[in-house]
UniProtKB/TrEMBL annotation:
GO MF term set: metalloendopeptidase activity
Classification lineage: unclassified sequences, metagenomes, ecological metagenomes
InterPro entries documented for this protein: Cell_wall_metabolism_enzyme, Dup_hybrid_motif, M23ase_b-sheet_dom
Organism: bioreactor metagenome
Ranges where the M23ase beta-sheet core domain occurs: 21-117
Annotated protein name in UniProt: M23ase beta-sheet core domain-containing protein
Transmembrane segments: none
Length: 124
């Protein structure tokens, strides 16, 4: 699903419209997921909607979040990671995103506010 925090977009799994503060990047289950930039693993959570999520804290108030990962990720909270380092793999989609197939949900925030990941990467 595309990033859209100002306008509701259609979610094919839930058959409803809502905003979306991340992008869904299609990939095969088991493909490696890499850190977008160097930083420190801030938290790892698991919930029914997003599966396992991993948050990396970067310099200057930036955070990146990677969701729809399986439980067996390869880093731990507090661990420093490098740009491009494998942090886990793509998991199977949860029942809330099954229509999208296997993918990673990638979100970026600056000082607690969502940022379009495409623009954040482009500005780098």
């Amino acid at each position: 699903m595309p990033y859209s925090v100002d306008c509701a977009i259609y979610d094919p799994t839930l058959n409803q419209y809502h905003t979306n503060a991340s992008v869904s990047i299609s990939a095969a289950a088991g493909d490696p997921v890499q850190a977008a930039e160097k930083g420190t693993v801030k938290e790892i959570t698991k919930d029914e909607e997003k599966g396992t999520s991993l948050v990396i804290e970067h310099e200057n108030g930036w955070l990146t979040t990677y969701s729809q990962l399986p439980e067996d990720i390869s880093v731990k909270v507090g661990e420093a990671v490098d740009k491009g380092q494998a942090i886990g793999t793509v998991g199977e989609p949860t029942k809330y995103t099954i229509a999208l197939g296997s993918h990673v949900e990638f979100a970026v925030a600056k000082d607690g506010e969502p940022v379009d990941p495409a623009k954040a990467v482009q500005d780098e």
